[in-house]
Design a protein that fits this description.
With about 400 residues, the protein is mainly β. The protein has 3 helices and 28 strands. Helices cover about 5% and strands about 30% of the residues.
Amino acid sequence: MATPVGDSYATQGGTIAAGRHRLPAWVRSAMVGTWSAVPASNTLSSLDPKNNPAINPVYPASPEWYASGQSRVITAWNSAAVNYAAAEMWVWGGGHADYGGNEPYKLNLLADTPAWQMMRPPSGAIGNLLTTTGTVGESATGLYSDGRPRVTHTYNSLVYVPGKGFTVTNLYYVYPHVNGPGKAYSFSDATNDWSVLSDYTALGGVNSPNGGCCYDSSRNCVWLLGQGAYNMVKLDCATGAATQHGLVNNHAQGPLALKYDAANDLIYILSSSSSGGWLDYPSRMSVFNPATALFHVLPAPTGSLASGMSITGHGVAWDEVGGRLLLWNEQTNRAKISVLTRPVNNLLTTAWVASELTLDAGNSVTPTAAEPNGTYGRFDYIERLGGCVLINAVNQSVYFYRVK
C-alpha cells in the first residue's frame, strides 16, 4: 500500500500527485501554528548587483543606480507579489531617491532548498550601459532609455497575473524623481523581459501613491484603486483596455490593500493607516461589487485583533478557502497573525469577526520586527503551501507560518 508523504503518494514506479501537490521537505517538517525560517541557500543581499563585477560597470564603487542601496528594494515602501499556482515570491522595488535598480528577484518556495534568483540585471548594468538618473521629464516617462520601467515605491501595487507574469500597476514614485505615467508593466516568465500590460494615462489622475490592486480571476483583469477620490479602474489583461467603474469613492486613508473573493465575486478594500488602525470604521474597510460597480461600507467587526497593529502598511493576505483575511505588521507581538473572518450570509451588511490565529506552544521562531515603512504584499498566504510567507529585509530569511 502506498505511504502518504505530504500531499503525494510514493510508489515503486515514481511519485504520483494527490491533493494539492507534493510539499517540500521544509513545509512537511513545519508544525501547524508555528513560524520557521525558510531554508533558502542565499538571501537577497547576496545577489546585490553592486558586489558583482559582471554586473556593476564601476565595481567595486557604487553604480549610478545604487543611491541608498539594494536594501531599499524592501525598506522603501515596497511590496512583493506571489505566483500562487507555482508558489513563487517576486520582489521588486526602490524608487524615488532610494534605489534605481529595476532587477526582479524570484524565490521558488516549492524547492526543498529554495534560492533567490535575480531574473535579469538592472538597466545600466554591464552589457546594457545607460544613464538611470535624469530630468523630471525623463522620470515622468516611467522608463529608462532601454524601454524598461523605472523602479518605484510599490506599496500594494504589485500583483502576479497568470499568463503575463509579475506586474507593477502604479508608477508614481519612480527613480529618481516622482510622478511616472499611468501604465502597468508585466515581467514575463517566458521572455524574462518587460512589456506594457495596460496604458491608463487617458483616464487622468488615477496614478497615486498608497494605491492597491488585485487580480480578478473571473474576468482576467486587474482592479486598481488610488488613495483619495478615485473610481475603481479595470485593466483588462487580454486586451490592455483600461476602464473606470463605479462612482468616485473617497478612500482618503491609505495605504490601500485590495483582495478579490472569487467565491462571492467581491473585492475587499482595506486601509492600513497608522492614524486609526484596522478597526477604525467606517473609513477603513469597504467592499466593491464588480457586477454592480457599487462600493459598500462594512459595519464594524465583532471581536478584536492581536495587539501591535498600529503602524502603516500592514501585510494583508486573503485565504480563499477559509474565507478570511490574515493580517501581520507587528513590532512587539511579532508572532501573532490577526484574522478577519467573512460572514456566511449577507456579506455586504453583516459584521466580520476579528480574532487571531492560535500560536502553538512549541513555537520557537519569532519574525523580526516589521519594517516601519510598511509590509504590504511581503506578507501573503499561499494555499498550495498551507501557510503564510513574510520577508522583512534583504539580509534576512523568509519566514513561514504553517496555517494547516
